[in-house]
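Students often ask what a 'structure token' actually looks like in practice. Rather than answer in the abstract, let us consider Alpha/beta fold hydrolase, a protein of 258 residues. Its sequence is given first.
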Amino acid sequence: MTRYLSRSSIDEGLSTDVRLFCFPYAGGGASAYGRWQRNLDAHGARVRVLPIQLPGREGRMDEPRFTDLHALIDDMDAQLDDELEYPHIFYGHSMGALIAYSLAWRRQQRGAPLPLAVVLSAYRAPHLPAPQIAHPEASDEELIESLAALGGIPQVLLNHPDFLSALLPVARDDLLLCTGRPMSTASDPLRVPLHLFAGRRDRLVSVSEVVSWRRHAGRGCEVRTMPGGHFFVRAHEDTFLRELAALTRQYALVPVAA
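Now compare that with the structural description of the same chain:
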């Protein structure tokens, strides 16, 4: 069993549906996508949601975290190789977009099966500087303030020190991961369709910076804007999942009945 997927996720994924591998944002874990299967089903999606669990958080809390993007992608590529033999789509939000694209690009480089599509939200293309949520040497208070302003920490949890003490080391390491050398170049675009989502009021990543992924798209690129800021996937979850469900139906293995 791959460390990046739970046993139940793998078992549930054995169906005629396309697999939707979901990569978390900085500081996040697989639980960020815990409600997606039910909600996407309600919107008529034909995908099996498989949340990716990175080391050093939630069920993998005792494992060392990666701070080097290339090392993480090497490990994921090896661990997920068997699961990626089945028809699948990658989805990543913010840091997850960087990871999803980098994994797809790495697999393209070695001739492995590619996703049917890659869906990316709230992140800049790899030829641009990584978005900086906070200075690397920011204090805990400054980092909490920056994350809360973006919507990365729900207000209800700001007064829970145990939660914050567990979150901050993960967030710091994830921010280091994002500042590493990009995996790909615009001269070697990804040979699968790219679907991009941008928050209209995102103060960290602008719509034009999301659109810049077009330079890396070798099989077409579609851009959709969403209400809300950087974490529109939470603040406007139902609206976003309705859009995502419609998108994934384009890649359904079994045609949707009229």
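One point worth highlighting: The longest strand covers residues 18-23. Ask yourself how you might have guessed this from the sequence alone, and why that guess would often be unreliable.
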